[in-house]
């Protein structure tokens, strides 16, 4: 059974993100959304050389299929999107991928706003993402995705396969190596619109 979460497939690309669950690991609901999880711009940090998958997305807040980070700057037990320049950026660690958009969609239930929770997938599983980095955030050109690529959290909270300080959130924060989020199982191409990964975090 395939579970598709996020906005309807007919219009999700114009408004928000989507994650498709092929094999579900953990659905973690232990975490309060940081205040900026409802208001962040998309992209939230790097605004040049950004992913083409964000084109047409006007919705604010964390999106389904983007990376959930620990957010100690917001308080004990908080999760949210990426932010830079906190007292200790090294404590913002990727946890998995958000299941839903924080602010919900027009004419739909808004569980994030009502509960203050931001559930995310972690602990294995296989998922298809509608949002991922298509560009080197340092202006290095288009990214090529291949089966077997390692997946990390970009500075904009999207999946990336580039592990350097200009692209990978944790390397920018001074970590020796980024957290491995997963491995590419199916690369996006003309026949497949999603980046399918086996989750490792």
How would you summarize the topology of this molecule?
Elements: E1 3-6, H1 12-15, E2 18-28, E3 32-33, E4 67-70, E5 78-80, E6 94-98, H2 111-115, E7 120-129, E8 150-153, E9 159-160, H3 169-172, E10 182-186, E11 195-199
Parallel strand pairs: 3-5
Antiparallel strand pairs: 1-2, 2-7, 4-5, 4-6, 6-7, 7-11, 8-9, 8-10, 10-11
Instruction: Tell me the distance between the termini.
Output: 22 Å
Give the helices and strands as they follow along the chain.
EHEEEEEHEEEHEE
The whole-angstrom Rg is 15 Å
β-strand number: 11
Average predicted local confidence, pLDDT = 89
Structural category is: mainly beta
Q: Total domains, how many? A: 1
What does this structure look like?
The protein is mainly β and 201 residues long. The protein has one domain. The protein has three helices and eleven strands; from the N terminus they run E-H-E-E-E-E-E-H-E-E-E-H-E-E. Strands 1, 2, 3, 4, 5, 6, 7, 8, 9, 10 and 11 form an eleven-stranded mixed β-sheet that branches. The radius of gyration is 15 Å and the shape is globular. Residues 1-15 have low confidence and may be disordered.
Features:
201 residues, mainly beta, 3 helices, 11 strands
How would you summarize what this structure contains?
This protein has helices at 12-15, 111-115, 169-172, and strands at residues 3-6, 18-28, 32-33, 67-70, 78-80, 94-98, 120-129, 150-153, 159-160, 182-186, 195-199. The chain is mostly beta strands.
């Amino acid at each position: 059974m395939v579970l598709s979460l996020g906005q309807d497939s007919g219009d999700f690309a114009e408004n928000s993100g989507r994650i498709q669950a092929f094999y579900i690991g953990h659905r973690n609901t232990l975490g309060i959304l940081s205040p900026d999880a409802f208001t962040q711009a998309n992209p939230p940090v790097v605004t040049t050389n950004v992913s083409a998958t964000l084109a047409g997305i006007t919705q604010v807040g964390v999106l389904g299929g983007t990376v959930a980070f620990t957010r100690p700057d917001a308080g004990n037990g908080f999760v949210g999107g990426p932010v830079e320049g906190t007292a200790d950026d090294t404590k913002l660690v990727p946890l998995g991928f958000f299941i839903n958009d924080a602010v919900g969609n027009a004419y739909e239930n808004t569980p994030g706003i009502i509960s203050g929770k931001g559930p995310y997938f972690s602990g294995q599983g296989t998922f298809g993402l509608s949002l991922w980095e298509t560009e080197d955030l340092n202006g290095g050109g288009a990214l090529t995705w291949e089966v077997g690529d390692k997946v990390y959290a970009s500075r904009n909270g999207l999946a990336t396969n580039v592990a350097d300080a200009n692209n990978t959130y944790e390397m920018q924060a001074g970590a020796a190596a980024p957290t491995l989020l997963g491995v590419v199982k199916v690369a996006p191409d003309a026949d497949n619109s999603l980046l399918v990964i086996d989750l490792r975090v």
